[in-house]
Amino acid sequence: MPVPVPQQRSVPAAETSHGGLTLLVIEDDPAGTTITVPELSAAAGTRVRIRTARNLTEAARLLTDDVDCILLDLALPLTGGGAGPGTPTADAGTSGTGTGTGTVDSGSLPEPVSERAGELAALTHVLGIAPQHAVLALTAQDDTELAAEAVRVGAQDYLFRGELDARVLSRAIRYAVERKRADTAQHQLTESRLRAQENARLERGLLPTPLLDGSGLSFAARYRPGRSRALLGGDFYDVVRTPDGTVHAMIGDVCGHGPDEAALGVELRIAWRALTLAGLCGDELLSTLQQVLEHERQSEEIFATLCTVDIASDGRRAGLCLAGHPAPLLARHGMPARLLPYQDGGPALGLLPRARWPRRQVELGGAWSLMMYTDGLIEGRVGTGGSERLGQDGMVAMVNSRLEQGLAGEELLEAAVAEVRELNGGELTDDVAVLLLGRDPERIRRWGGSAPRSHPASVDRPPSPPARAAGAQRPPL
Prior knowledge:
six-stranded mixed beta sheet; 30% helix
């Protein structure tokens, strides 16, 4: 019994751009139809355009982007019209307005998915050349099993020849189109989620793991990228201990907040670690790091600020180098925190080709904490209307207030970042990185000469408060 649709008619390109639905019917005997275009349009509630193809070769030429749905007769032979009993030829490059399909080779079709895969060869081929189109399978009424198998293979729905009329067909077309859209949206959403998970694993793997074993120093860090749904920003930091017992710490900030800046920050951090482990320090290290920046940056306007500290093996003194970066905050046990001197700092990396970065000696004392941070922590808005910035003085006052409350370590960092965000009246738009290094002789003795293993920085997760010794005075940072 022939498919009840009118014979093929040409559709001008302009007609397909004014709404309505376009149906491509693939059936080898379209004669004797019973449904007219006006009947189908009336049942669908909109204008319906119909194209018919007698074989897969002709279907490939008629399959354009404006086709909304394909009605395929499952009884259609896989061979093309006039091509004989072999494989059909569908060379869109030599005729019509094809979709780029070439010779159809039955040997290139997917592996059979069931015992009736041969009966679904035409459907498999159509799904291959029209992956973005909705497909309806047409079959005999007594072949429900084949119809269900067609849906399992990839068709959106199936229809029986004996029950086909304008109302049923119009409803099936709309259902198939909407189901295909939903399936496509779900597939894109799944791909997006998988891509986001992969990116998150990649970014998480690029976060530093401090190398402090055997140093006797404590470590805590807080990292908060300014970009939404990101784990990495333009801020970067690292801490390593070299074989001579010196602990080297670094924190930096690439200007900008996008993925390019985040990638450059990772490159600079890894380069700093490699150069440090190779024995470079101070001005020699920063000069080499500037060369890395100049080679890797996207434009000559990109620069990076940096603060490096090298702490002697006895933990009582350190060397400080500043490259356009805010000075660290030092708190000795039982004393208010204060900013380290910053008058002898050098320019940011990437600004001056032959810049120098002097190293300043700093006395730390027996028990201390050193807080290194990026400008995202001090540039948040405060006050009525948010007209003022927190600034370094405001940050020092805020930290000392938290010290008076007995906070320390990651608990202090979490409280500080939360207060800065609250004073700003919402999320900070700039990246924020803060790290704490501390030395506590009593703690070192309790751990037999070394501190417990350090952990990577927390990223947007509330950390667990560290334990504090009973009866102690105001703890260091």
